[in-house]
Amino acid sequence: MATRRVPELDPALVAQWQAGGGELVDLLVQARQQVGGVAAFRLGPRPTVLVTDPDAVQHVLALRPDRYVKRSHRARLLIGDGVLAATGEAWQRQRRLLQAQFTGRGMRRYEQRINACAATTAARWAEHARTGQVFDVGDEMRRFALDTIWRSLTGHPLDPATEHSLAAVPAVVAALPSLPADSAAAQEAVAGELARVDAVARRAIAAARDSEPGPDGPGLLHVLLEAAETRPEYTEGLIRDELVTLLVAGHETTATTLTWLYLLLDRTPQAREQALAAGAEGSPERRQAIQALVHEALRFYPSAWILPRSAAQDDILAGYEVEAGTDVLVCPYLTHRDPELWDDPDRFDPARFTVPGRRPAHPGSYFPFGIGPRACLGLQFALRESTALLERLLPAHIPVFRSTPKGAVHGITVRPDGPTPAVLRG
Question: Among 85, 187, 208, 406, which residue has the fewest nearby CB atoms (within 10 Å)?
Fold first, then answer.
């Protein structure tokens, strides 16, 4: 089959975008609209290829992951050599150890902790409703998700001092896109926040090593400490990195998804009513409908909006030549909004995930947690905790927002660009 060069976005448009100081997503939208699902442009010395076409997505992430590799994770200064940033044999070893913790069978040990966190949040919301207090929905979602992953890691509920210290985690994540390119300067810019995170990690590791498991049994941290007894690669540093990785991946994305969901429901209130009408409390039908709400929120705002890869060798992608060294940007954010794949993609419609035939069947058309060997380990965990919380909150309360964000910030995640103050009504 004849091959050709990847079609390129007009360099004048790239220059115009650079001069205007726009966000990367703005350039990617132009490339997708004007060139197509495999589009090239240049921002620096290496060529860049944007991938949104489902076949090309599957090729890069699932069929040829050995040819399209991670070069360096954007959050490495925070997560170090944790499983999200690791590569090669180290990544394979780390992923194997953690994978069993997030299977259906492994998930059962965390059900009690997830339900306890959901109950705690529901009680807090009931108090907000009783007093008429104004609160921030995004803050509440972060608090819930952080408590959930902390209990899963340590076996203990999140205490106020630890919660205060771990506010440094979203602060670093939010700062990452604007940090200096020089690694030493980047470290210096967030040194205080990193020191607070490191202090929390040291205390948690020491407590897990020196004391009995918490009331809900051992947590993921104990799994890492047990691995260190027989695997020399699990040094104190790597245990710290895995702990922080799980903290970051285990709460930031879930909190953001739940916040977006409530903002979407504010604009589409009938979606909440339809989910609750799908079945009785606790029924499989209602649970499926609530999960569809989460999936549709993830279609709009996937956990990782962009998945960078580097071509490790020459390849043919969707009939186009891709040279070794090319930066490849797989973008679920744009694939999920492609009108050639999704009917009326700007409409919030959870029925896409409950009615057969309403969503594209191709695995490369919906991948909020990635696909292939590097797909997110925490998919089932995130869906379970989100569903457990929404099963309690949706029937009882409707947030009435005092103001809503005007847009989104495309950083490591896609987050609302402002606060989300609200009061509750039943």
Answer: 406
